Fold:
Amino acid sequence: EKSQFLAVQSQVRELNLHTVCEEAQCPNIGECWNGGTATLMLLGDTCTRGCRFCAINTNSQPLPPDEAEPFNTAAAISQWKELSYVVLTSVDRDDLPDGGADHFARTVRLIKQMRSDMLVECLVSDFTGNKSAVKTLALSGLDVYAHNVETVERLQSFVRDRRAGYHQSLEVLRFAKEVNPKLVTKTSLMLGLGEDDDEVISCLNDLRSISDVDVVTFGQYLRPTEHHLSVVDYVTPEKFEYWRETAESLGFMYVASGPLVRSSYKAGEYFMENMLREKNQMR
Structure:
């Protein structure tokens, strides 16, 4: 019998979809695809920022967005029968007035029109703090609004592009929930960049007390090339378990923590999916 992984792989080819899972050679692809979750890229493959942990192509003037992409993506996803949870993500597009927020929102609305049962997570940039852009996406009908703080406050300027920022990210997450209190909000931290325990705990407290974030993931930073930031330390599995327990004790609804965990890791995992479906029934 054909496995779920092979069925998803076949449909990716047939529908000409671009998954982060394959393009980033994610180590968790088998787990996620067999669990009915996949991550798709919108808005091209060229980023307007140059974060020091990321190996994606950069250019201040990428190609214009494909105006047909929202419809084509939704139409393809509507045919993807093995899929129950989709993550939409993109590069940063600071060249666009709204950072691509409307492009995302149109994609979400079309997916929901064609597959009302599909759970949709959007993992997006900070839109340079543009609250109008955040509001556009927050009210689009998505289920999970995800934006990554990436690292602790002290290391922000060393790790992320200068146009990003710790407090800007916290405010984006806070405002998304303010605009739409029914949203589940989510963020991710890379470990192994030189952060200490007190800094991670401070960050987790900020995410809960300032931004009311619901879901957090922890993963090991791995250096993509010799031109990128070096790994300062490799975090043990025991330490990842400690961070899972610590985050849960602070009130996060769901925590994924492990060396190979990435921000979209098993996004549709049983607990997350049931939690979202229950919230949707209460709306």
About this structure: The beta strands are 37-42, 46-47, 57-58, 85-90, 119-123, 144-146, 184-191, 215-220, 254-257. The mean pLDDT is 86. Residues 48 and 94 are 6 Å apart (CA to CA). The first strand starts at residue 37 and ends at 42.
